[in-house]
Write a structure and sequence with these properties.
The structure is a single chain. By secondary structure, the chain is an alpha+beta fold. The chain folds into two domains: about 80 residues, no CATH class; about 45 residues, no CATH class. It has two helices and twelve strands; from the N terminus they run E-E-E-H-E-E-E-E-H-E-E-E-E-E. The strands form three sheets. A seven-stranded mixed beta sheet has the order 1-2-3-7-6-5-4, covered by helices on one side. A three-stranded antiparallel beta sheet has the order 10-11-12. The longest helix is centred in the N-terminal third of the chain and has 12 residues. It is elongated, with a radius of gyration of 16 Å. About 25% of the residues are buried.
């Protein structure tokens, strides 16, 4: 099954196809909340919700360009929020390539050594944050 596509309007994320979140909106976190949430997510910490309660990850949606969208749901209000995870930087990709060439099991540079990178087709990516770090042929 091909990945589903999301597009960003100025105020919301909208789902275009497939069965996940058909016709539902994702609220966007403010830029300061996004940065804090991204750091907390990579450190595997609980994230407070803007509506009160805690944000729990529901789904990781990989993107074509190498980044990902993580969908969270508030435990009290059941409102869903989208958090954009940017694609891997060149230094992160170099770290992964160095692990591969030294015959180590590559792990996610952002999520830590507990998250091993998984091969999906010809790509190596993190199943927790959805970021693609390398192409393996």
């Amino acid at each position: 099954m091909r990945s589903t596509w999301l597009f960003r309007s100025p105020r919301k994320w909208m789902f275009l196809g497939g069965d996940f979140m058909e016709g539902r909106e994702l609220k966007e976190l403010s830029s300061s909340e996004q940065e804090e949430a991204r750091k907390a997510y990579h450190r595997k910490e609980q994230m407070p919700s803007p509506a009160g309660g805690v944000l729990e990850p529901v789904r990781v949606q990989p993107r074509e360009e190498g980044g990902a969208l993580v969908v969270f749901e508030c435990t009290t209000s059941h409102v869903r929020y989208g958090l954009e995870i940017p694609k891997a930087t060149s230094s992160e990709r170099k770290k992964v390539r160095a692990m591969i060439t030294s015959s180590q099991d590559p792990h996610c540079p952002r999520c830590g050594s507990s998250e091993r990178l998984r091969r999906v087709g010809e790509f190596l990516g993190c199943s927790r944050c959805g970021v693609v770090y390398a192409t393996v042929r």
